[in-house]
């Protein structure tokens, strides 16, 4: 087996997953190397990154990975070179806007704690809405599956006392707009199938923000309606003909 890359909440969870996926011979074992530590802060979490290899028991590769670290080695491996701080630009923000400056600092501290190669491209302020544009090689970790991590980070920031009275929107490369277009296309396509088959269709579970977009799109189509079923996080929408069970 060539080296495979997996993302998981922990090495223990990954080992359990691998047991279900791979059957090892008696003389084989799994070598897992942590490439990026998992990160969790309140309800925001990010999976760790691991490389996985199947090797022969007692092989040099297994010995190297499982070899105890000597004290002399600890001194060397624990010394990390400080990464050069990327210059961050905050545009369209007044120097007097202390709240925008504070938001900039809080997000930078969060990204540093998560050890993510992400920086703030710009912060713009319109009325009481603060829009933050992020860039970086690891932006996918902040976006998360279907943008859930992005929304969680927004909620986390707006739950802080200093930002309770403002709206914070975080985006990267117009992800939210692209995702909204995908959802509206899904709603239109599903609506056509419901009308054609005269049968209701149940969509996959999605966050409340995404269900709202689907609902808005279906409300424009005469003769159709949506109903929500289930409980979070598996709550989903059913698109159906009006007045039909």
Automatic annotation (TrEMBL):
Which terms does the record give in the GO molecular function aspect?
Answer: RNA binding
Q: Which InterPro entries match?
A: KH_dom-like_a/b (IPR015946), KhpB (IPR039247), R3H_dom (IPR001374), R3H_dom_sf (IPR036867), R3H_KhpB (IPR034079)
Family matches, as Pfam families: R3H
Q: Where is the R3H domain?
A: 177-243
For this protein, the record's SUPFAM superfamilies field holds:
R3H domain (SSF82708)
Q: What is this protein called?
A: Single-stranded nucleic acid binding R3H domain protein
Q: In which organism is this protein found? A: Streptobacillus moniliformis (strain ATCC 14647 / DSM 12112 / NCTC 10651 / 9901)
């Amino acid at each position: 087996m060539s080296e495979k890359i997996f993302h998981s909440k922990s090495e223990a969870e990954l080992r359990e997953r691998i047991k279900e996926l791979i059957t090892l011979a008696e003389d084989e074992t799994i070598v897992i190397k942590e490439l990026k530590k998992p990160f969790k802060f309140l309800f925001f979490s990010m999976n760790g990154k691991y490389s996985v290899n199947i090797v022969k028991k007692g092989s040099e590769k297994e010995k190297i990975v499982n070899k105890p670290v000597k004290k002399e080695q600890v001194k060397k491996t624990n010394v990390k070179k400080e990464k050069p701080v990327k210059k961050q630009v905050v545009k369209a923000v007044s120097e007097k806007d202390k709240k925008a400056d504070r938001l900039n600092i809080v997000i930078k501290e969060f990204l540093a704690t998560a050890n993510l190669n992400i920086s703030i491209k710009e912060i713009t302020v319109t009325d009481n809405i603060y829009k933050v544009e992020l860039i970086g090689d690891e932006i996918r970790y902040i976006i998360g599956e279907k943008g859930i991590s992005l929304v969680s980070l927004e909620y986390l920031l707006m739950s802080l006392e200093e930002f309770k009275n403002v709206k914070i929107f975080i985006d990267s490369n117009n992800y939210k707009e692209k995702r909204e277009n995908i959802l509206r296309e899904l709603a239109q396509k599903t609506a056509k199938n419901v009308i054609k088959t005269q049968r209701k269709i149940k969509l996959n579970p999605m966050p409340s923000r995404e269900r709202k977009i689907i609902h808005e799109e279906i409300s424009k189509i005469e003769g159709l309606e949506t109903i929500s079923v289930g409980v979070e996080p598996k709550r989903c929408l059913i698109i159906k003909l009006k007045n039909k069970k």
